[in-house]
Structures are given as C-alpha cells and as structure tokens.
Amino acid sequence: MSDTFTLPIGAVAPDFSLKGTDGKTYTLDCFTEAEILVVSFTCCHCPYVHGSDEKTRQTIDRFSPRVQMVAINSNDPTCYLEDSFDHMVARMAEYNFPWVFLCDDHQEAALPYGALRTPHFFVFDQDRKLVYTGRSIDNPRDWTQSTTAELDDVLEAVLDGREPPVQVTNPIGCSIKWTDRADGWRPADACDLTPQ
C-alpha cells in the first residue's frame, strides 16, 4: 500500500466495526437513515481539531438530521497519550459533540479510507458513494478566521440535488499517527509529532 493512498471520488464507503465512547459498537449500517454520511478522521490532541470542532458542530447541527457524522480516532496513543480511549470518553463527556466518536485502535478504518490528517473529512451520498474528501474550512487552527467552508458548501449542494462545487481538497492538520503493522507497512511520517 502506498502512503499517498486516499479513497477516490465515487468509491463506496468502506465498512467498519468500531467501539464508540458510549460503549456501543458501530458499523455503516447504524447510519442508514441519514441522506448524507460524513466520516471524519480526528483525535483528541491535535490543535487543528481543537480549533475547528465548534465549527464542525455548527455544520452538523445545521444539516441534522439529514446529515450524520461519524468521528474516528485512528491515532496510535503511544505517540500521544491524549489519544487513548479513556481520553476520548472524557472529551465527549466534556463537549457533548453531535456525532459518535469511534476508536480505531487497530487502524483498520484509517487504511481503507486513506486518512491523511486530523481532521480529514469524507462525504458520502445516499448511495454511500464518496462525493467529497478533504478539509472543512481553510483555517482549522482558528475557525473564526476561516474564509472558506467547503464542507458546508458540499453538504448544501448535495442535499439540494446539485453537484458539489469541489470534490477534493487537501486536508489541513496533523498527520495520522501510525502504529507498526505486522505486514511491515508504515508511512514515512509514522508518529511524526510535527503538525502539517
């Protein structure tokens, strides 16, 4: 597998089976009622996540219940203790975000999606085909200073039956903190602690 892979536009959403901070196990079948599903790769420590979570909350609240979001933490917690499951539970308890927060501790979801950064958004239509991947805004470190809102624009267009104004942007944030794998695959920036 290449370390530059990310899910291509038009691809069907890869399924997963992951534990949420509420103790339940979630698969794609848990979100069939939503017209649009947003899968976000995120974490607990990243300043780009901290700087944009409230904007993401506004977006999901705006389009709910037609849109649902699943947030997945695939980071290796040995890189950052803050990304452990216990810290995920604490973060959800503190902020009560309007999405489920799932632990991908074996990175089985991040790999088929090709998650690159935190945050990284994947938007799937009613047929669960990918219509957009990338950033939500152009300044996730401080959402109040952002000048674009790609995620909002895409959701509004798809819900209106229009083509998304953009399909791919570069996610802005910290790199996914990859763990060693039995097959030897490991991206060059695994456990790179430098925000990118």
In a few lines, what is going on in this structure?
With 196 residues, the chain is α+β, with helices and mostly antiparallel strands.
Give a verbal description of the structure:
- It is a single chain.
- With 196 residues, this protein is of the alpha+beta class.
- It has a single domain (18-175), classed as Glutaredoxin (3-Layer(aba) Sandwich).
- It is 21% helix and 19% strand.
- It contains four helices and nine strands.
- It has helices at 47-63, 85-95, 110-113, 150-159, and strands spanning 18-20, 25-26, 36-42, 67-73, 100-103, 117-118, 120-124, 130-134, 174-175.
- A seven-stranded mixed sheet has the order 2-1-5-4-3-7-8, with helices on one face.
- A hairpin with a 5-residue loop joins strand 7 and strand 8 (130-134).
- The two termini are 22 Å apart.
- Mean pLDDT is 91; it is low at 182-196.
Question: What is the strand and helix layout of this fold?
Answer:
Layout: E1 18-20, E2 25-26, E3 36-42, H1 47-63, E4 67-73, H2 85-95, E5 100-103, H3 110-113, E6 117-118, E7 120-124, E8 130-134, H4 150-159, E9 174-175
Parallel strand pairs: 3-4, 4-5
Antiparallel strand pairs: 1-2, 1-5, 3-7, 6-9, 7-8
Which descriptors apply to this entry?
two-stranded antiparallel sheet; globular; 7-stranded mixed sheet; 196 residues; disordered C terminus; 9 strands; Glutaredoxin; 4 helices; alpha+beta
Query: How many helices does DSSP assign?
Result: 4
Helix content: 10-25%
- Please provide the count of β strands: 9
Rg over alpha carbons: 15 Å
Overall pLDDT score? 91
| The CATH class | Alpha Beta
Distance between the terminal alpha carbons, to the nearest Å?
Answer: 22 Å
In what order do the strands lie side by side in the largest sheet?
Answer: 2-1-5-4-3-7-8
| Major sheet characteristics | 7 strands, mixed
Structural class: alpha+beta
Helix and strand sequence: EEEHEHEHEEEHE
Architecture, according to CATH?
3-Layer(aba) Sandwich
